[in-house]
Amino acid sequence: MKIAIVGTGYVALVTATCFAEMGTEVFCVDVNTEKIENLKKGIIPIYEPGLEDMVHRNQQAGRLQFTTDLTECLDEVEVLFSAVGTPPDEDGSADLKYVLEVARTVGRNMKKHILVVTKSTVPVGTAKKVRRAIQEELDKRGVEIEFDVASNPEFLKEGAAISDFMSPDRVVVGVESERAEELMTRLYRPFLLNNFRVIFMDVPSAEMTKYAANAMLATRISFMNDIANLCEIIGADVNMVRKGIGSDNRIGNRFHGIVIEQISGTVGCAKTCRFHIHGTFNNADGKCCK
Ligand SMILES: NC(=O)c1ccc[n+]([C@@H]2O[C@H](COP(=O)([O-])OP(=O)(O)OC[C@H]3O[C@@H](n4cnc5c(N)ncnc54)[C@H](O)[C@@H]3O)[C@@H](O)[C@H]2O)c1
Known about the structure:
This protein has twelve helices and eight strands. The protein is of the alpha/beta class. Nicotinamide-adenine-dinucleotide binds next to helix 1 and helix 5.
């Protein structure tokens, strides 16, 4: 199977390399010429344990190619992942200009069916906007070409990105047609064969899952920071409290270790907006919820 991944940031490069490692032929596309020229020479823009060797191995095997021109590979690929940046706008909402630019480029150039999968962290409703942007370009060209959109949010952690991708807690896939489900099942077959959970659902639920996960993690950090502040006041040891509550398996002992780095006062939207970087708490219009 041949796929394209648009972007060569953290998410795109890890995704592209890991899919190539599993035997998929991957074209990795970025508008940043310098990054692409460096990647062609084997120079990796980020440090992630194990990534450099894996990129080189798959480049040499011809499974991983880098280009600045999406149109070069559009006719060849069945699935295109969009993993471009979604920087926070002035009000903290996710700026979708790169995501929609990718969709318009696809609509302007596609000649056959393609499944466009959004991997960037985006507000609920973005897949509809992506569909509309592609369709508008097809209408301008006066052509009728079938396509599908899907959502496949990314949950990797920087520093453990490869193991998070290769041995995921779960893969969430939002689809709206049987054809899209069949393509994503083929792509993720190695995960299914290894008994990793690949959870298929509708597109808004997949988009919402990413936001709900980010919100839950942000809430836990805020909660533990408040507990740390209380511990300081009453003379308790927050690390002992953390151990004490984390051993309850309804709570768990992961992601409670950040209490040392105080992010105080994170209750309420004004302060939790810092988590908009990862797409938390935006509403359907991409606006801050405050
Ligand atoms: N970094 C993480 O840990 C992480 C984890 C989960 C989800 N995410 C989400 O994944 C998305 C990507 O994040 P990142 O950190 O990898 O981004 P990044 O900013 O590091 O990289 C984005 C890349 O996209 C390229 N780009 C922009 N417009 C383009 C276009 N039209 N065509 C081709 N390339 C284009 C840029 O040149 C850049 O190289 C974001 O939505 C982010 O919130 C990130």
